[in-house]
Fold each of these.
Amino acid sequence: MLGRFRTVFANTQRAFAARSNGGFKPRGFEEFFENGQALPKEQPQTELRNKSWEDLHKLWYILIKERNMLASQKEEAKRAGITYQFFSNTARIIKCKKSMARIKTVLNERRLAYEQVQRERKNNAQKDPSS
């Protein structure tokens, strides 16, 4: 059944792409299946520290979609009886998890820095009540 769905989906994708000069933009259920999209590269924490809150949020959302797509593919492989040694997305799953952990670490560093500044302001206000 899933093989038939993929065939129908691929034919629909090609027909839609041929009609509209733009690319096919998957929506809903289709986002859980890979269709040749370029995925974000793995970024070290030093690069993530320079990104804005909005950029980190966008990257987090992309990684959630990637993680869900990989989990769907893993379950599909399990149902189809494909053994672990032939499932090639294990490295991508690890990269996705590492990237998400790095984003969480950067956000935690920012939270801790903010709390430290707030404590220092509070301590300075208590020491110097005239200001």
Note: The chain has a mean pLDDT of 76.
Amino acid sequence: MSESASALPASASSLLPGAFRIPKEIECWGHRGASAHLPENTLASFRAAILEGADGIESDVHATSDGVVLMFHDPTLDRTTTGTGTIKTQPWEGVIEHARTKKEPVQPIPLFAELVALLMEPANLHVVLNLDCKMQNDPERLFPEMARIVATYPDWETTLAPRLILGLWHPLFIRSALRHLPLLTRYHIGFSLSIARTFFWDACSGFSIAFPVLMSSAGQTFLQECREAGKEICVWTVNDPGEMRIAMGWGVQAILTDRVGVLTGLKKEIVAHPELLPLSGIKGSLFGWSSWRYYSLAHTWMQRTQLDVLRTMCYQPGPLKLPDLADEVRERPALKT
């Protein structure tokens, strides 16, 4: 095995896609970094997550009006920073670059280029980056700039691309992903299993699904279908130790959490003492009924909400349609999905 291949996480170098993972093989991905105790989506948060043992980072991308790609969750600056207004209507230079986090320690908003540079540091060549591509952005503005940044690194096809995952909410992003970032893995993010099956099953090699949805019988059926088809499953956002245990019992690829230290510590404990994995006693028996989020009525509401959001909040509002990918597939017959 080459040095670059050996630096990749287990899911990228040895395990078959969709394989059931025992706890020591399940990855911890820091949701917006170590966001439980540091400002979310900042370099400080990303670095802390890695130091706490995260195998991957989950973060979000937006493009400014002057074409700069930055790491930020909301479409507006107001909730977490001193800035105001919509990201895509304001320039980075002279405006957004001056915004700082409200939460301490005060941090600037990081650029995509800065996060990639962090991943390419010698100590971090094992770290995966799961990119939540926010639907308010036109992918034809977002993806070409991301592709340009990725391609600035020597041997990026082998040292960087295998560690980058494009998380897609909306089917309008599939064609642009194929065109501009064909070597990057594609996952669908969501909490609607019907949308996942209808619009993303053929175009994506994995799914990042909200934890409560997988608690249902329909969720467990979807999990089994993915396993049989060789498709990966990740779950978000899992901060409760009980939910962490349940997710590890499902044998998923990765668990996304704000509490990286809690998950990595629990994982080490269970690897050393496998008998601690199952929830025992009354808590184990009643866990499936312990939260309204696990109920089918809540899942129906979640799925309707996702459909409404995709129809109305995307950069191009309207009904969902399957993209015509014939030209992209013909041009790139060996694309990685």
Note: The chain has a mean pLDDT of 93.
Amino acid sequence: MIHKLSKKQVNILKQWYIWQLTIGFVTYIGVLVSRALSKQHAPLSSRQLVVIIISFVVMGLAIKIPFEKALEPSQKIRWILRKCNYYFQTIGQALLLPLSFSFVMLLIHQVTHINFFVLAIIFLIYLLFMYIPMTYFVYAKIESLVGRIILLCELIAQGIFAGSQLILEFTKPAQIGHVIQTIDNTQVADVISVLISVAFLMYLWGFKLPNFTFSKKASWIVISFLIVFSVWYVIWNGFGDGGKVSDVLFKYDITMDKINLKMVLTSLETVMEEWLFRFAILSLLLRALQKHAHQIEWAVIINGVLFGLWHFSNGFSGQAWSATFEQMLSAGAAGMLFAAIYLYTQNLAFPIIFHFLNDFLGLSSSADMTMSAPASLDWITTLGQVIIFILIVAFLITGKRKKVIQETLDYQYTTA
């Protein structure tokens, strides 16, 4: 870690970390055992026993982390084991904490008879900040560039992203109401939790928070062009209805489904993606490449490639693999464009709004984020998009625009 906290702050986080683990774990095990001993419930299954054993392992290895002392250079094996435990905890605790607190919620409901709607609101609010102690004692200990990128892309996003569903494990839709159920289904609470955790993590790693205003050094002619292009693209992507190459850019069908809360909240996942890729991962890449002659170019390219690979998992969710590969290609180029736009404008709100509107209008016109298998025209339009995006990227990271980026890079991150 580069940014150190005061002893008082560390002590508060330590107490929070220990009590959070202990209360959740004890309640979790206690409820399971009491259910197993009760004649009203079936005995523990082999699956539940395995989960309990894994939980004991996670808890045993987690509770000692705040008390670890620095190792000597000669203690290489212990150093390796300690690092392995950090990676193990990123998944273990991310799943154990919300799952154990679902049992805390269940116990409170049974003892106090407070209805699940009120408890769901309280626990979802707590979920937003639940991972802060873990961020300090576990996430921040990851030091390598590759390890940090994996942590951000998979361990944090995928681990924390299951939080709301796990913490509401014992609730039913009728018990928590439509709005809370929608928040759960769209995982918007998990999105906010990721934003908070990653912001704190980046601070601990020595990075500044991103800007949300345009750079004074950027040309307003260039910014205006980017705004006009972005507006046109999200409209075309959402409502373009061309059936052949000759009219693919000129035919539109402005038909939208009725806008509802679920559509809006589902599209908010784009905010998390921009926070992860254009703020966190791009900052890590810029720091790692700061002595490279083509720092900006490689950072933008790698950021786009990683963003494209991020969409690979969609193939496992029922989407056709041909559609997934098309999506990865399009997302990779879009990732480069979002990165270049952010670096030039120094305004993270730009790619966030661009990305949000792109997904929201696409969802509002099709009502489904799952892509169908692409036809020949789909491949042609996708390749056209990729070429246009890359041309704009090349324009933004070369010539005078590159100098603008270099002059403002300082300070989006502090050197290690």
Note: The chain has two domains: 7-204, 220-412.
